[in-house]
Amino acid sequence: MATSKNKKPTTNSAARPPRAVADAETGIVLATMDVTAPPARVYQALTDGPEIEHWWGAPGVYNMREWKADTRVGGRYTVSVLLPNGQSMPASGEFRVLDEPHKITHTRKYEWEHPALGMRVTTITYLLDAIPTGTRITVRHEGFGGCAAAAYEHADGWERVLGWLDGYLGEGRS
Predict the structure, then answer these.
(1) Cα(105)–Cα(121) distance, rounded to whole angstroms?
(2) What tens digit of pLDDT does each residue of 15-63 get?
(3) Rounded-to-integer distance, Cα 18 and Cα 30, Å
(4) Is residue 151 part of a domain?
(5) CATH code of the domain in which 71 resides
């Protein structure tokens, strides 16, 4: 496995910073982070559209906008990723598992031709395990077989995203 080379974001957790690894051979990215919020609070932050739009992104990187979701198993979601240049990149998916507050699984497809991934459908699973200090978040993002560059890029992305989530929850929003 190769470790993501992305600079670690600043977080509010007393625990370790977010960490992600990409396994190019299996096409799987694993990321983890401990946050001080309880699992139910983390689950809400990962499924509530207005919250997602608030914390998922950063100036000069990208922001999530126009999140619309039918948050039930089999329900679909759409979102626009707004780039700093104003370009909007749509994505969509379907919820496969919603086991509040422990597990979320959904698919994701970019509705544009991603340079390293194309329009391939990937699957993201969030495991939210209670720990004495809050929640251990484990992200398993699979479907990168044959797309090593996309796997490494997404490992970098998951470190950023988990850092953003930790910062958001650490602002007294838990």
Answers:
(1) 13
(2) 578 999 999 999 999 999 999 999 999 999 999 999 999 999 999 999 9
(3) 11
(4) no
(5) 3.30.530.20
